[in-house]
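Researcher: I'd like a structural prediction for the single chain below. Treat it as a standalone chain; there are no partners to consider.
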Amino acid sequence: SLVEIIWVPVIVGVVLWFSSEGPFGDQFNRFGAVACGVLVVLVPWMIRNEVVTGHRLFPPNNTGMELLIGQEPGARGILDVLRDYVSIYERAGIDALDPVDKDDRVFAGMVRIMRESPGRTARLAGRKVWLLWNSVMLNAPSTTRNAHFVSGVLVSVLGVLGLYVNRRSAMAVVVASMVLVWTLYGAIFYVTP
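Model: Treating it as a single chain, here is the predicted structure.
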């Protein structure tokens, strides 16, 4: 979704801000360049959202639906193509006529579900992180599943080793930050198998 694409340069900008050496003005210039790049991407979408919906919306404007997929009562942590999420979404926001208000109500309902059952939310988050980062292929022949798992473990071990060896590098900090953001995003919303 667009939010993942947007947060990458933001994280890079913040990491460059804190990890760069030199005068404060140089750090500020680097961060400003990244921030302006993000604004060049976001502002046209925000203008479009205000023209179409009458609301100033920060992209994406479907956070309620994305949270519903990952947190609704029947959620398993993955996008299930057989579930009728649109009907669930319509029922959750039934008393709102405006699409933006409907999404806000669905979002509030999913946050309420998360607050009422923090244990379930934590289990789902753990499952989603596991599904995001493991290399097991669901519903695949055992030979394919095993080969995928072994190659995924090898790539993960080499990646962690590479981050450790280069831990003082600004690029390692950027990569680790993006991995963390991607993991948190997957834990809160949903993962695609």
